[in-house]
Amino acid sequence: MTFVARMAWREARTGAPRLLFFFLCVAIGVAAVVVLRSLMQTVRVTLTREARTFVGADVLLRSPVPWTSAERDLITRAFGEAGVGAEAELIQTQTMASAAPGQGSGVVRLVEVLAMGPGFPYYGTLELEDGRPWSHDLLAGHGVAVPPSFLVEMGLVVGDTLRLAGQDFTIRAAVVRDRLQQGGGFSFGPRIYVDVADLRRTTLLGFGSRATYQVAATVPPDRLDGLVDRLRDGLDRRASVRDWRTLEDRLGRNLTIGENYLSLVGFAIVVLGGIGVWSVTRVVVAQKVRSVAVLKCLGATSRQVLGIYLLQMLGLAGGGSLIGVGLAVAAAAVIPGRLVTPLGIEAVHVTASAAAQGVLVGVLVSTIFALVPLLEMQRVKPLLLLRAASSAGGGRHDRRTLVAWVVAAAALVGVAVWQAGSVRAGLYVTAGLAVVALALLGAGRALLAVTRPLARSPRFALRHAVVSLGRPGNQTRVILMAVGLGCFFTLSVRAVQGNLLHEFDAQIGGAAPDLVLIDIQPDQVDGVSRVVAPYVAHPVRLVPLLRGRVSAVQGRRLQLAGPDAVREHRRLTREYGLTYRLGLEDNERVTAGRFWSAPVGTGGGSDGNAAGLGPGVDTEVSIAQDVHDEAEVDLGDLIRFDVAGQPLTARVTSIRDVAWDDAQNGGFVFVLRPSPAVDRAPQSFVGFVAGGTDASARGALQRDLVRTYPNVSVIDVREVLQSVRDVVANVTLGVTIVGAVTLAGGVLILVGAVAMTKFQRLYEAAIYRTLGASTRLIATLVAIEYGLLGGLAGLLGAAGAFGLSWALARYLFHITWAPGPGALAAGAGLTALVVCVVGVLASVDVLIRKPLSTLRSE
Questions:
Q1: What DSSP letter does each residue of 150-164 carry, written as one string?
Q2: Cα distances (angstroms) measured from residue 791 to each of 344, 437, 443, 786, 833
């Protein structure tokens, strides 16, 4: 071992310049793993540690409807038996906010209102801009607390008056940090805080309001489990019960999944670096064949020779991994704070576990990829010094080499499973890498076959460039694999982004609605239409909306006697939005039965005769295809709905196929036939307005609506879509950066591959120069060779991105596919240019060296 260690050190010291790219390949991959894992670990530790502050209490009950007296009694008894220390009532809803006359900029804004009782939150606090401690007294007597960004947008300051639902509230504080997670969904506007007693004095909690009723409490730790179980068993299933530990577990689980996913991204980059390690190791082995033969002539065994170079590669992998950790520390230090402060952390720091994992992954992957080329050294014979024609095996693979391939593949799968935290995910990733790698390797063979006829070209540079592609020991397949993967990742992300943004632009163009009006009461329909009319070219479209639940089903395949049976069935338990009308929408088509054309009881014939429905049946209903397929509801079945406490029985007379992604004016699972019973059911209306692109006109419309009908909320769809577009752009940027890092790794591997094969090119260039070839001619030869490689890599990457964007658009996003051939062609051309330029620049030493010194060394 002393001899092995000493020789490994000597070999590494003398060949250090040639092994620079070994370090770089390992370091880039390890840095990616360490940064990604450190980010997720930091976020997970911070969020789970502060899980109580997210809930603000030990237990939180939520219901989409007001609590019944029976539910109140159950909650009171359960709290008393559990020794609840404190409890508070909360209500969450949405409304339009505007400044009092003469104040602010005149902007009207949809806001999320969270009304709190005294004492809440029990854990954590709301941090105020002026540094004062949070107190519920700030909300007493029509006070309100708002985010600073809301003040800027509205042109208001603390002390001004804010109008909500026709009542004036005084802005008492600006909340700069809010950790409460009460919404559980997408927020259409900034959150503002009011007192729950003041909210009850407004009109926001009338019928049709979108309010969530909550109860928060503190509970002794040893009684928390029993309380949660009792509440879940006793309350209606529409109510949810959660405690801070549930949130902590869910956060931890989701963040672990996110951490493992990002680690797989880093693992893919490490594998790409491993390909570079494999490339460098192959060239090192080819260069050291004579040295190995000398060592064997002097008595060294095959095991000692393998140990020398394996120890050398392990040292290089360890050094490269440590350099990767250093790069990760530098990268974490430059991550902008604004990207991570919303997650509750000030900065990202490299964690010890992430650094250890990164080093271990780097060493393992480097060893896996270096092992097979190193085994070639065992087949080098001492006779090579006497017979130059002898080789290390002539490309044949013995049993030991095949076993090494199997072991390396199994080890790579094991590392992937470890990084993913899932056997299935690890297998998928390694299988995907294998498929892509095999495709690129096959493309390398195809390139040699397709370009072989060009070897007979009369043009010297083209003929010899094609011959050079098939030179033994050339890096054709390695370069294709590295650059092709990077090109594929980057162009795929760009293609998908283009399709999504194209779809968003299509949705907000033309006559599509850009304003949605909600909570319009039946007696306000005509008035709202009059207010909106001056601002639009087409009349506002008002759709009736009923909120109901399925309480029973009587059918051929499905028999649900009551609400308990519906809950056990689990397919029809949620609250549905119901509507009624006389025709189909553009995104609907009838697949079975017949859709009505007149209301119940308005004329002769079965189409308008209420008696044809059967005794006790109030109307007809058309169901979506999903209900028929998944819940087993058929034509002729009876469905009983509970619409805000009022029963409504309907017979299924048609089944509709609904294109949900094209539901610009809303999509409904259940559509009722108009009837007197439906008219009597509690309902509100939703309006869809095409307000145009003029932001000032849309703002004036919102101000007039809020002034006349303060209970009506206006959602600016253009603003929502812009928010979604921003999210997509940010995610795309992040993934594009990953793809760019991968592409940069591919370029480094390309440079390394070119540099490591210079010993072959030096002798060839010397012969060419001796025979009269100019430097320009040799440079042209190199440019053609690498131009062909880059062109094929770019073409394959663009083709893969083309196919992937089509598949994602059709099967995942269900949007219109826009191929974007211009961007893909530009990406393929740019890839070819980059590879060509890098190939020429990396071969400068070959181009300028005098032939005499090379021939003398031979």
A1: HHHHHT--TT-EEEE
A2: 46, 17, 12, 8, 8
pLDDT attached to residue 20: 67
276: left (phi over 0), alpha (psi -120 to 50) or beta: alpha
How many CB atoms lie under 10 A from the CB of residue 507? 19
- For residue 789 the two structure tokens come to 């490689």
- The Cα 613–Cα 616 span in angstroms is 8
538, 511 contact by CB (below 8 A): yes
CB 54 within 8 A of CB 180: yes
Assess contact for 70 and 98: CB atoms under 8 A: no
Tokens of 463: 């003929």
Q: Give the C-alpha separation, 333 to 339, whole Å.
A: 13
Contact 470, 447 (CB under 8 A): no
> What is the 3-class SS of 645-692, one letter each residue?
CEEEEEEEEEEEEECHHHCCCCCCCEEECCCHHHHHCCCEEEEEECCC
- DSSP structure string for 98-150: EEPTTSS----EEEEEEEE-TT--SSS-PEETT-PPP-GGGTTTTEEEE-HHH
CA distance 112 to 127: 18
163 φ/ψ sector (left φ>0, alpha ψ -120 to 50, else beta): beta
State the DSSP code for 202. Answer: S
Which distant-in-sequence residues (6+ apart) come within 8 Å of 719 by Cβ?
A: none
Residues 6+ apart with CB under 8 A from 669: 576, 577, 623, 624, 626, 627
Helix or strand holding residue 366 (H, E): helix 352-375
Residue reference for tokens 């001004």:
160
- Beta-carbon neighbour count of residue 402 at 10 Å? 11
For residue 842 the two structure tokens come to 């990396």
3-class DSSP assignment, residue 715: strand
Close Cβ partners of 187 (under 8 Å, ≥ 6 residues apart): 112
E runs forming strands in 575-645: 576-580, 588-593, 619-624, 638-643
**pTM for this predicted structure:** 0.55
First CA to last CA distance, the chain? 34
Judge if the upstream peptide bond of residue 133 is cis by omega within 30 degrees of 0: no
H or E element that contains 551: strand 541-554
Measuring CA to CA, which residue among 468, 472, 475, 478 is closest to residue 440? 478
Span 182-220, pLDDT tens digits: 544 445 678 899 999 999 988 888 755 678 899 999 998
Q: What is the C-alpha to C-alpha distance for residues 138 and 193, in angstroms, rounded to an integer?
A: 10
The conformation of residue 379, written as its DSSP 8-state character, comes to: G
SS3 category, 60: strand
Rounded to whole angstroms, the Cα distance separating 230 from 234 reads: 6
CA distance 159 to 169: 10
The answer to whether 28 and 273 are in contact (CB under 8 A) is: yes
Is residue 239 within 8 Å of residue 6, measured between CB atoms? no
pLDDT digits (tens, 9 = 90+) for 649-681: 999 999 999 877 555 555 789 999 999 999 988
- Give the mean pLDDT of the chain: 76
Per the CB < 8 A criterion, the answer to whether 741 and 486 are in contact is no
- Confidence bin at 837 (pLDDT 50/70/90): confident
806: DSSP letter: H
DSSP label at residue 301: -
**Please, which contacts does 810-817 make with residues 24 or more away whose CB atoms are closer than 8 Å?**
813/499, 813/500, 813/503, 814/661, 815/499, 815/500, 815/503, 815/661, 816/499, 816/502, 816/503, 816/506, 817/499
Alpha carbon distance 712, 697 (integer Å): 18
Q: Which residues contact 528 (CB under 8 A, 6 or more apart)?
A: 517, 520, 540, 542, 685, 687, 705, 709, 712
Which residue's entry shows tokens 């293609």?
A: 495
